[in-house]
Amino acid sequence: MRPVRKKINSSYLLMFLIGSLVFALVIRVFLANNAGLLEMKNRTPVLGTFATYIVIAESETAGLILSSMDSLARYLDNELGVYGNGELSNLNMRGYALIPELSSDLIYLLDNSMFISSITDSLFDPAMGALVNTWGFPSDPHLPDSADIDSALARSGLSNVRITGDTLFLSSGTLLDFGAIAKGYSADRIYTLAREMGASAALVEIGGEIRCGGDTATGRLWRLAVRNPRGDNIMEMIEIENGAVATSGDYENYFFENGLRFCHILDPRTGYPETGVASVTVICGNAAFGDALATAVSVGGRDTAENLPDSLFSLIIVVSEDENGEVTEWRRGSI
Ligand code: ADP
Ligand code: MG
After folding, report:
1. Fewest CB within 10 A of the end CB: N or C in the chain?
2. Which of 206, 182, 193, 198 is nearest to 72 (CA)?
3. What is the pLDDT of residues 32-44, one digit of tens each?
4. What separation in Å is there between the alpha carbon of 191 and the centre of ligand 1?
5. Taking a C-beta distance cutoff of 8 angstroms, is the pair 211, 326 a contact?
6. 266 in contact with ligand 1, CB cutoff 6 A
């Protein structure tokens, strides 16, 4: 699960700015030094945000790999999205599903969401769709009546998801929402596709969740910049050869009311947005886990990060903000 850190070979550096839905700044794009290897890049809207793909592959196949990555992203967007007519929205509409008929994508998300929920005191919860809708994220964010929050809270949470025999049932009004893991999972799937199709190195970034890696022989190191959640400057440079970097924060999808910030990361204990954590960056082996853990730690703060099994991550960086606007940084682990 751990990303591999390697000595920098400056001729192979790529730099990204992460930690924002509108981030992805490629400082340097180049033709790879290895003869016959071509580097190609694409940036496109998908999964309610933007995705960036970079592949380094034989010049004959690089274009095909890039377009296959894009097709897979569109497929996952449709199937795993809360809206539309894909597998997840159909399950939410029907309120039940036969487990043997579910796709391996949905099985992965259900299985691993339940696991992450179990190790985070349910602070990560994939059955919060009713609550997310009540707050109007992402299209119409607003402060709901407290009675509406209570009612949505009663319909939210994994306690409203039951498995009886081969069938998965949702309580009435309960909606699965994989918004806090699906982007990371999609980055993993699309990255794996690129490597299986022969890319010697690839990077996939979807809304701030990154999966990257390459052949050891290529010696490529990805250089990623984590953005300061309370400014435009770079907070941290991260260098990895293989692995994932995921960031959640309160600074992309939020609104202010009565001088208070309300963001799209919701605390399942209260039904209200988390407060006190400005951003969480998780560096680990795969982007699905990084994405989900970053959300859980955004809700639970350092206590949640301190209690995570250290086999699941290399480094967690938590940026907190107190009531006076004082910002502090805390970290667990290393790369
Ligand atoms: P981002 O989309 O900015 O990367 P996250 O990964 O934290 O942020 O995902 C936030 C989304 O996940 C919300 O828009 C909502 O759909 C869903 N969500 C909000 N709170 C939680 C939570 N406590 N557990 C699981 N999913 C959540
Ligand atoms: Mg997340």
Report:
1. N
2. 193
3. 455 678 999 999 9
4. 22
5. no
6. yes
Euclidean distance between CA atoms 204 and 190, whole angstroms:
7
What tens digit of pLDDT does each residue of 139-183 get?
999 999 999 999 999 999 999 999 999 999 999 999 999 999 999
- Distance (Å, whole) CA 301 – CA 282: 13
Average pLDDT over every residue of 241-270: 95
Ligand 1 atom closest to 207 (CA): 4
Distance from C-alpha of 8 to C-alpha of 25, rounded to nearest angstrom: 20
pLDDT in tens, 85-116: 999 999 999 999 999 999 999 999 999 999 99
Taking the alpha carbons at both ends of the chain, their separation in whole angstroms is: 12
For residue 255, how far is its CA from the centre of ligand 2 (angstroms)? 19
Cα distance between residue 202 and residue 205, in whole Å: 10
Q: What domains can be seen in the chain, in order of their start residue? A: 87-170 (1.10.3980.10)
Please tell me the pTM assigned to this model: 0.92
From CA 184, how far away is CA 136, in angstroms rounded? 23
Nearest CA to ligand 1 atom 4: 248
- The pLDDT, as a whole number, for residue 3 is 42
Indicate the residue type of 293.
L
Residue with CA closest to ligand 1 atom 5: 180
